[in-house]
Amino acid sequence: MEILREILNKFNIVHAPFILDQVNVPESDIALIEGCVLDGNQAQVEYLKSIRERTKKVIALGTCAAFGGIASLSPGKQADPVDRFIEIDGFVPGCPPPPGLLNDSAIRLMEGKRIVLSDRNLCSSCELRAENMNEFTRPIDAITPGTTNPVAKQATCFLKDGILCMGPVTREGCEARCIKKGVPCEGCMGPPSQEYTSNVVNFFSMLPLSAELRDYTGMVFRFGRPRIRRETKQ
Amino acid sequence: MDIYEVLSHPIRRKLLLILEREGYLKHSELMDKLAIDKTGILNFHLKQLDELVSKETKTKAYCLSEMGKAVIRIIDLNERLLKGEELPAEVNKKGEISRVGVITCNCTGEVSDCLDINALDAYARKITGVVSTRVLDNLCQEKYLKSLHQWCRDNFINKLVIAACSPKTHQHVFEAMFDGVVDRPNIEIVNIREQCAWVHRDDSYRDATLKKAEILIEAGAARVGLQRAIKVKTVQVEKSCAVIGGGIAGMTLALSLARAGMQVHLIDKAPTLGGMAARWNKIQGMADCSICFISEMIGEIKKQKSITIHTNTKVDNISGEIGNFTLDLTREPRFVDVDRCTGCGRCTHICKVEKPDQYEYGLAKRKLIYIPFSHAYPFAATIDKEDLETCKACRICERACINKAIALDQEPEKLRLKVGAKVIAIGAELHGDLASFHHDPSNDVVTAPEFERILSSDGPTGGELLRLSNDEPPKAVAYIQGIGPRSASGLDGVNQSLDKLLARKYEAAVKEQVPKASFKTFPARTAKVEVGGGEKRVVDSSAKAYKADLIILGTEVVPNPDLKDLRKKFDFTLDDHGFMGEETLSSGIFGVGAVLGPRSYNEVVFGANKVALDVIALLSRETLVSDYTGAENNQDKCGLCGLCARSCPYNAIVLTSDRVVVDKFKCKSCGTCASVCPTGAMELNVDSTDKIRKSIEVMAKLKESPKILAFCCRSCGYAAADDAGLKRLLYSPSVLIIRVPCSGRVDSNFLVAALEAGFDGVMVIGCKQDACRYIDGFYKAKQKVRLLQQVLGEDGAGRIMIESMSAVEGNKFAEVVTGFYNKLKEGTKH
Lengths: 234, 830
Hints:
The structure holds two protein chains of two kinds.
Chain A: H1 2-10, E1 28-34, E2 37-38, H2 42-54, E3 55-61, H3 62-67, E4 79-80, E5 90-92, H4 99-110, H5 177-180, H6 196-204, H7 217-220
Parallel strand pairs in A: 1-3, 3-5
Antiparallel strand pairs in A: 2-4
Chain B: H1 3-7, H2 10-22, E1 25-26, H3 27-34, H4 39-49, E2 53-55, E3 61-64, H5 66-74, H6 79-82, H7 93-96, E4 100-105, H8 117-126, E5 130-136, H9 145-154, E6 159-164, H10 167-177, E7 187-191, H11 193-197, H12 206-226, E8 233-236, E9 240-244, H13 248-259, E10 263-267, H14 290-303, E11 307-310, E12 313-321, E13 324-331, H15 346-350, E14 354-356, E15 365-367, E16 369-370, E17 382-383, H16 388-394, H17 396-400, E18 413-419, E19 421-424, E20 428-431, E21 445-447, H18 448-455, E22 476-483, H19 496-513, E23 518-523, E24 528-532, E25 535-539, E26 545-548, E27 550-559, H20 562-569, E28 589-591, H21 601-619, E29 623-626, E30 631-633, H22 643-647, E31 653-655, E32 660-662, H23 672-676, E33 682-684, H24 689-699, E34 708-713, H25 717-726, E35 735-740, H26 748-757, E36 761-766, H27 777-796, E37 800-804, H28 810-829
Parallel strand pairs in B: 4-5, 4-6, 6-7, 9-10, 9-19, 10-11, 19-28, 21-27, 22-23, 22-27, 34-35, 34-36, 36-37
Antiparallel strand pairs in B: 1-3, 2-3, 8-29, 12-13, 13-18, 14-15, 16-17, 20-27, 24-25, 25-26, 30-33, 31-32
Helix pairs in contact in B: 8-12, 12-24, 13-14, 13-21, 24-26, 25-28
């Protein structure tokens, strides 16, 4: 809240389509864009381009704008992140973006600096990380801990416990908020580098996933989907 | 003068730029313009710039020399460099400047038969980053070598694209040709013969073939532009070798090396040479008794002037690298001046205090001051450090010694050696869970080493086979084989061949001295020793009891406990059993004897001679060039998830609590780790991710439809593609190939990126599954591809394929590629 007051002291909000209907995009210093572009919607792409033209800094806010987000799950539809259409100056991932990161990013933006994200994966700040992480053998057969109490504290690495955790392929920066609540990482912070789906495929190819989890589509497209459809020629 | 080195400093770049703009400037003016406040700093940089700047003698003003002007003119491409812009710290400054030269080899018309080589050259000249190009008829003939070197120097070329035949054919030739001019990782070979000209020899392909060759060269130039400098170090080879361990292995090796004229330092922490074998009765397979043989060997060693012996000496620290190590040693005091001691034995005779003799495994007693055994070398008395206080209180030996050799005030002595190679020969230990087999020498249940002492002529029984309990020869002897340490040792099978050898040796020894005695061997796994009622029984797996009056406990050979400690100082690897791993050999650290695992005498000698050859080969070179190509971990990005360690087929990656360590000597640079690293922390320093991704990006510019990108593994897939060329098979020029070290290197992101970039199909071509060059890289690639196919469904499954073939299956390659091409063509029509 503090930071919001500061932001409002320093900046004027000149364009907010969710508050005001406004056809033309005015000139501005910073644009925060939320949400994805669905199926390459031409109107939305034009809108993005006009924002880019009139804005000094464009920031993609949230997982949808950064990677495509949850809409990627819908079959037959293509949810694209903002940077597939326009150049962006940074992004703040997370669904929702973690407060700490949001705060830091806001301060950096006000100071005219670039947004800084960690290059590492969640394991590096996970308190459950085991010494011999690479030596898990138990088949991974669950996506949540089978306990009735969701806040029961997990004592060992989820993966070692046979529970799928996306921590190794997810960017650090969320302060492991789910894991601290006893829930494995779902990967909303997106990949530390590269593209979302292939990053998860690399990871899954190395796990002893059991047969119950064999329908992976829900996991590999949870927050992003590569744009690989071919334009068919007549 | 290395121009890149000179220009690596921003001040020097700025200085050149200012002089170019202003013409003449005095020293003080230069200081102002450059904002330098100390004259020494400016003088230093002016000196570094050397020939590039000259000084007017009259006006004392500085200006650019002719060469300086030339440099400015030639390097104008690197505008931002000259502006004094700071370069990112992680990028090696030398590698940042990238001036690419392109050589196109026509292969005596083989290439120009299929495409317009002049058009190709014209295209290459326009590629960003390329500063100059050459077209040659026959690069491999080496007749233009001098002019090519001059060309590189004139144009300040530090990176080279050679568009010619397959790297399988002439990579080593080309790399050797430019040794000292262009670094090896900075030479990129683009295959325009086997995988381009030869497979598209059809008039209808002519234009497309040219386009493909252009794209291949452009991708090559982009790749090589991203190559970072690999640290190369030239080391003057120190012509000597340290051998740590003066047992049978160390001595054999030291002798071989000395006879070849090498300087050897033979180091042992014991007060004498000889090691374990000196206490054995006989060496299996030799008629000679062990101590006679060892004393002969010690005699030989004494004769060799080039062997320096350091007994009582420990290794403290090691630094340096292969070819030039520094060893810090401590010589522990033996409290007797070796130079004065004649070995007369008066001191041991007069000494009043006794303790168990470790050289007799406690079967006999000795005095506090002692000579280890009768053929010890140096043959001089010694006192154990632990007994020093007792001896200082008595000093009777000091008075008895007529040579005044006793020196109870001796201090440890520090030594420093320079050596080119190190050999570890500290042997192994015999260790087993003796308590559960009722080990008790006084009740005739003895270990194998103790039994060796009983048989030895200088042992407690004077070499007669007698029971220690009553000095009578045994009637029934049981030998229990392979008693391991109490904890699960994981040594299964390691000791087997040695166990058999020992059983034969002991049976022969018993039969020789007491022909009537029976001898029976039991495996420790199922045998049990029962003691009670004045007799001893061995119960075997079928619960049959064998009455024995002498039981020999054969313990297992386990790694020397000092090995772990040495490993902290020496950089070598351990195998699964904890013995020294053989991969270490490239590091200038070698192992001989039982340090590598259980060895018989013959195996030790063979091994020592082989290592001697390796050491001689290493030390006979004047200089060594060390560079490492393989996986590297960037700690700033690493999140310690351990996926790399999980994927490595060679266990070369070790995950500790705070870092990931790549074992340089185990890494074979297959890149499987880099392909699964989610953060990009794990990276190959030659076949890096950014280079491959850049290739995909550039190659996607090819305007053909359908177009296919194939990732081919270096040893099989790529060779099969070459084979198709050698056989002059035909396939479409819209197939582009990227060479990867192993199919395991292929990240699913490469496949997705290729599809996203506009390729209609991607292929991974690797080795036959059971014949993968990197153990299971192909299997891992297959896992990724299958998964990707499954999740992409109809959007992508049919556009990704994985295939395995051997290096001679060019026909299969052409067939598979053409089949895939046709299938995709069908797909694009709808």
